[in-house]
Amino acid sequence: MPKTYSKLYAQLIIAVRGRSNFIQNKWKTELYKYISGIINGKSQKLYSIGGMPDHIDLLVGYNPSITLSDLIRDIKSNSSAFVNRKMFFDKKFHWQAGFGAFSYGKSQISDVIRFIENQNEHHKHHTFKEEYIQFLKNFDVDFESEYLFEFYE
Question: Are 70 and 44 in contact (CB under 8 A)?
Fold first, then answer.
């Protein structure tokens, strides 16, 4: 019987609700490990994870055994519950609705990993809003500003 074969790569971007700077250095590694476990548990492969206090970027080797929307839903709901259960701070943690997903070819993977690993340096020069809108433009994604992440300058 024929089998399905694929090799897909997606950069995923999710933001903290209200764009609050909730992801703190003292516990972000624990959060990243937890998210890695979610991704691996869904038969996906995490190549890189990084971000800022208000959002994260992930590079995932995507297996179409699950929809991308379902994968993101599971990452968000389970990691929110994890952060709230661990009580890393006194406010309720939530991810913002929506996400960004951008596909890449194998030859681009090392550049994407480098970009994700250097988020701190990159955001010294570009705001999250500038970065995200540039992704949408680079990937020729039609968008309406009122339906983007909430951006607070």
Answer: no
Distance separating alpha carbons of residues 50 and 72, to the nearest angstrom: 16
Structure tokens at 19: 């764009």
Token couple for 80: 């929110």
Buried b / exposed e across 76-93, counting CB within 10 Å, b at 16+?
beebbebbeeeebeeeeb
Residue length, the chain? 153
Give, in order, the Cα–Cα distances in Å from 53 to each of 9, 107, 110, 129, 152: 24, 29, 24, 14, 13
The C-alpha atoms of residue 136 and residue 91 are separated, in whole angstroms, by 31
For residue 62, which phi and psi values (nearest 5 degrees)?
-95, 125
Coil/strand/helix, residue 63? coil
Whose tokens are 């971000």? That residue is 51
Dist CA 72 CA 38 (whole Å): 10
Cα angle 71, 75, 76; round to 5? 120
Mean pLDDT by 10 residues, the chain (153 residues): 86 87 90 97 97 95 93 97 85 90 97 94 86 92 81 59
Through-space distance between the first and last CA atoms of the chain, rounded to whole angstroms: 55
